[in-house]
Design brief:
The structure holds 2 protein chains of 2 kinds. By secondary structure, chain A is an alpha/beta fold. Chain A has helices at 6-22, 26-38, 42-61, 89-103, 148-151, 164-179, 197-208, 219-233, and strands spanning 2-5, 71-79, 82-85, 128-134, 139-146, 155-159, 187-195, 248-258, 263-270, 275-280. In chain A, strands 4-2-5-10 form a 4-stranded mixed beta sheet. The longest helix of chain A is centred in the N-terminal third of the chain and has 20 residues, at 42-61. Chain B has a single domain (2-169), classed as Alpha-Beta Barrel (fumarase), CATH 3.20.130. At the A-B interface, helix 3 of A face helix 5 of B.
């Protein structure tokens, strides 16, 4: 049994919120830079060059990359030999988000009631928390600050087994095409296949957090990722939807077992500002 | 690159073509979802608006809070289509332009053509860079809406593309061969 003070989890989340908002992860900015060099359409080049310059200013001056600093999603993996002390874990997580957003001058973008009141909670809480119990005595925290320009364009479809790979390809490309200029391309596209209606959606979000230089561990899915990326970039949506070759930076697929009657598929669209961080305690 | 001073004359706006890269300078107003809802309510009640809409350009933005010493925080465009339902009404009351990102409805296209207004688009996720082109920010109304409040901004060489011109041409529907002559 290992005791962990919950405030340590809160502090890790607080620090990550500030860092994610102002600094692109290296794998993303590298792809944006390389796309800026290969685009031939002037408008597309111009938009990508603005993103490169924006990244420099954001990092140097601690200005958020994007004003939509997102809603926080926390994925926790808690070793079953861990005992939390010093209060409720959930409270500590929300306190970490609260401090991370208010002390780093990030935007409060969460409303308390989705339909009627829509009153801003003023500190970007609550975060969405997913918890998984694993072996060992460590806590792994993965978090994401998801912007809603792209979240709004995400979709789940209960594909049938008969639709096969072709059905998945069609659904992913249709979702990307429907996202079009509105969701701030170039995109990173998270795809979750299998599980249930709800679990494939979660899987598609997890897929967004995998480093872009890592392909699916299954060569068949890795190959599908590459083919989908090529097809996405033939859609001529381009940076900011103003046409060009760079519609997506990467398609990331995660899969899991499912029912004999189904093949659920979720596509979680993410703009180029795909903010995620990881900490292990 | 073409430089436009705002508020611009309708004649100047008529000369703009979808796809052109432009630099905007002058005064613009921020407003997004919740502020639009309130502006509509004020118009419907016949009450005065908190700023003069005549020839005004509205920027769809909800910036991050300014750090001490900053004019404004990160300030890039939000998705414009959510404001589509308000455009005909605001155009009738004088609005000359909008700045945002993404596609607009047919209703917006008709309003833009009828009133000689222009829709500018800029780069989503470039809020740090765009904040550098904002030289002053002065609260105007609805401060309780936090990032959604209406703020009068002074901009200098704010980089945009003409998204929809007064003839209803749309940047997102241009054929590639018709792109910028740069």
């Amino acid at each position: 049994m290992r005791e962990i003070e919950v405030s340590r989890i809160g502090k890790a989340i607080e620090d990550a919120c500030g860092q994610m908002a102002t600094v692109y992860s290296a794998d993303i900015i590298r792809r944006i830079r390389s796309a800026a060099e290969t685009e031939t359409l002037p408008r597309a080049q111009s938009a990508l060059n603005m993103l490169v310059k924006n990244a420099e200013i954001a990092e140097q001056e601690s200005i958020p990359i994007c004003q939509d600093t997102g809603m926080v999603i926390v994925f926790l993996k808690v070793g079953q030999d861990v005992h939390f002390t010093g209060g409720l874990l959930t409270d500590a997580i929300q306190e970490g988000v609260r401090r991370g957003y208010t002390e780093n001058y990030l935007r409060a973008s969460v409303v308390d009631d989705p339909l009627y009141d829509r009153k801003n909670t003023k500190d970007n809480t609550p975060a969405v928390i997913h918890t998984e119990i694993t072996g060992g005595d460590q806590v792994e925290i993965e978090l994401m600050a998801k912007g809603f320009g792209s979240e709004n364009k995400s979709a789940v479809r209960m594909c049938t087994p008969a639709e096969g790979e072709e059905g998945i390809i069609r659904f992913v490309l249709d979702t990307i095409a429907a996202a079009g200029p509105n969701a701030c391309p170039p995109f990173i596209v998270g795809v979750g296949i299998g599980g249930t209606f709800d679990s494939c959606a979660r899987l598609s979000k997890k897929a967004l957090m995998r480093p872009l230089d890592e392909d699916s561990s299954d060569p068949r899915y890795a190959d599908l990722e590459r083919r989908l990326l090529q097809k996405a970039n033939e859609l001529n949506i381009g940076p900011m939807g103003m046409h060009g070759r760079t519609t997506a930076l990467k398609i990331q697929i995660e899969y899991e077992p499912t029912h004999i009657a189904g093949m659920p598929c979720a596509v979680n669209m993410c703009c180029h500002v795909c903010r995620h961080a990881k900490a292990v305690i | 690159m073409k430089r436009i001073h705002l508020p611009a004359s309708r004649q100047e706006l008529r000369e703009l073509r979808a796809g052109e890269e432009v630099l905007l300078s002058g005064t613009i107003y921020t407003a997004r979802d919740a502020a639009h809802k309130r502006l509509k309510e004020l118009i419907e009640k016949g009450e005065p608006l908190p700023f003069d809409l005549q020839d005004a350009v509205i920027y769809y933005v909800g910036p991050t809070p300014a750090r001490p010493g900053q004019v404004i925080g990160s300030a890039g465009p939000t998705t414009s289509s959510r404001m589509d339902p308000y455009v005909p009404l605001l155009c009738e009351h004088g609005m000359a332009g909008m700045i945002g990102k993404g596609r607009r409805s047919e209703e917006v296209r008709q309003a833009v053509m009828k009133h000689g207004a222009v829709y500018f688009v800029t780069v989503g996720g470039a809020g740090a860079l765009l904040s550098k082109a904002i030289t002053a920010a002065e609260p105007v109304a609805f401060e309780d809406l936090l990032s959604e409040a209406v703020v009068r901004l002074t901009v200098k060489d704010f980089p945009c593309f003409v998204g929809m011109d007064t003839e209803g041409n749309d940047i997102y529907d241009l054929a590639d061969q018709c792109v910028s002559d740069r």
